Amino acid sequence: MNLIQITETPPRPAAEVIAETLLHKVNAALAQRVYEHQESYAQFWDNSESADSILAAMGTNAALFLMSASENIQHIGRLAGLVGKQVDDFIDPSMYVPRHELIINQDGSAMIKPPHITP
To answer: N or C: which end of the chain has fewer CB within 10 A?
Structure first.
């Protein structure tokens, strides 16, 4: 006679285990994408250097950075839409809406739009 009654649970079907693992990877990838976007956004806007000086330092790669950030947010939004949510359910707009209007030049460089310039 045992003091503690142990109930054995039958092993789960392999398909369930694989499905759970794959869905966990989707959630983890989304969480990583959100985290990396927030980190990049904070590095770009919340530091001792101006966003303009960072864009200037990027040179003709600035467009790549800005377009990559935009694509990332759109991807988060598409994933959110698959489960009936919006991008704002995963990341606060204050962490993806640019604080100033940006101008991307044909050569790939970029700058913050001065208040007096109209495109």
So the answer is: N
